[in-house]
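The data layer described in this paper is built around a simple, fixed record for each protein. Because each token names a local backbone shape, the row as a whole describes the fold. We quote a single record here, exactly as it is kept in our systems:

***
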Amino acid sequence: MNARDLTVKKVGMIGAGRMAQPMIGHLARKGFDVAAYDIDPAKRSAVEAKGGRWAGSLAELARECEVILICVGYDRELREILSPEGGLKDLPAGRVIAVLSTVHPETIVDLARMAGQRGIHLVDSTVCRGGKAADEGTLLSFVGGAPDVVAALKPVLAAYSADIVHTGPVGTAQVAKAANNMIMWSCLIANHEALALAQRYGMDPETLREALLMSSADNSVLRKWRENTMAWAEDDMEIVQKMAAAKGIGLPQAGVNREICRILKPKRFKLDEYGR
């Protein structure tokens, strides 16, 4: 089956964590029949509360769904799911797999090649803007893949995304997400340092923050101050460092920022503690 002939009615979601749960709800409200699978059965009630069905196995998703979204944490988990012996081994030709996870671009290219040998279309479709945007259905989706596959997938992505950008061939959505993460974590660190310094000099941090939002220092993380959990900061920056090493490029700021993020995470937004 050619991707342009694909009519999507049934969508599968692998992983039912913080980001995936609201996505399931948006998909269900848009009229898709959504089934979800997670290794943690305790998430079943949350999936059903969002309007999704609980799948008993990955094989069930493979039988039923035209599009399967994968939202797991790490390269290792992704490779296990998509291995020749994995839970989607019986996925029919012509189906589409979209990887929402943030992983190394080469992982996506490798998995897409193997999927293609089975007649399956695999793309990467990373998301930005965080948990609040997931709740609101206003995520930004970067999509890397063949144009016809991306076009077939867009109605699914539009259920939870306010913006969809086709970044190029498979793997480029991971590159775009890595660039996003590098800048985002840099801004978060700079925001902390600027506000902490101002506070030491007796200025109200919130007054300064509001002023900076009108200046050239404005940035998304400053606008959403106190919202970021930093849940994936170290992992994001580890991927960036591996990408840089693979291409023989030095990214000294990215390396320093990874270490700062590790120290900052337990003290985030606690300006009295920053720098001590």
